[in-house]
Design goal:
By secondary structure, the chain is an alpha+beta fold. It has 4 helices and 8 strands, in the order H-E-E-H-E-E-H-E-H-E-E-E. It folds into 2 domains: about 90 residues, Protein of unknown function (DUF541), domain 1 (Translation Initiation Factor IF3); about 110 residues, 2-Layer Sandwich (Alpha-Beta Plaits), CATH 3.30.70.
């Protein structure tokens, strides 16, 4: 008896579900793919004169013992740091980038093995120079202070606040994208609609041309000339537009 009731209840539930499914309105699914509309990429470029110089510099000392190398390196680095600060570089704009103590070896042909001939201490910092006209004189001051231990690895140019230039580049990129889309719409015989998708990409220009100075500038030496030139800010946008028949 109990089994008959269970079968009847199950049958009633199945019929009820079928009836509800038949009464329900069919679902509508709308798919929008990237194949619809017009997709274009616009580019905007703006040239600007850099107002920041970043130097990667420091010292390198080599002696027979670690203690001797460290002493020479520390004394030379103290003089380099003093030269930077005395020439207007703020302490907050000086940051240690690399420090190492390494063995210096050479191949002993008699013993047929590597032998230690000394120890090399390297201490490198980056110095951000906000008065760009002083970059050359600061390089000269550092070279004189560090003497033969001076190492200048690279120099880079950048903008302290590039936001205003990105705004201009963004406007140019959007105008370029719209012009391309309008031309494509005209060629296709359709009317260009509104943008439905926008994606931005920023292309950062290389700002660290490499310069290497292994020795102090011999006296008397002409002043170091630094030319910042111009840096280019480039920005791209990808835009999708609807089309109207």
């Amino acid at each position: 008896m109990k089994k008959k009731w269970l079968v009847a209840i199950s049958l009633a539930l199945v019929l009820a579900i079928i009836g509800l499914a038949g009464c329900a309105a069919p679902a509508k699914v709308s798919l929008v793919t990237q194949e619809e509309g017009i997709w274009v990429t616009g580019q905007g470029k703006v040239s600007a004169v850099p107002d920041i110089v970043t130097l990667r510099l420091g010292i390198q000392a080599q002696e027979a013992s670690v203690a001797e190398a460290q002493t020479q390196a520390a004394e030379a680095m103290d003089r380099v740091m003093a030269a930077l600060i005395d020439n207007g570089v703020a302490e907050k704009d000086i940051q240690t980038q690399y420090f190492s103590i390494r063995q210096v070896t050479k191949w002993d042909r008699v013993k047929e093995e590597e032998t230690v001939v000394g120890y090399r201490v390297t201490n490198m910092v980056t110095a951000k120079i906000r008065e760009i006209d002083k970059a050359g004189s600061i390089i000269d001051a550092v070279a004189e202070a560090g003497g033969d231990f001076t190492r200048i690895d690279s120099i880079g140019f950048s903008l302290d606040d590039p936001s205003v230039y990105y705004e201009e580049a963004r406007e140019k990129a959007m105008a370029d994208a719209k012009a391309k889309a309008e031309q494509l719409a005209e060629l296709a015989g359709v009317t260009l609609g509104k943008p439905t998708y926008i994606s931005e990409g920023i292309q950062v220009p290389p700002i660290y041309p490499r310069v290497v100075m292994e020795m102090a500038i011999p006296a008397p030496a002409p002043p170091t000339q630094i030319s910042p030139g111009e840096t280019e800010i480039s920005l791209t946008v990808q835009v999708a537009y609807t089309t109207l028949d």
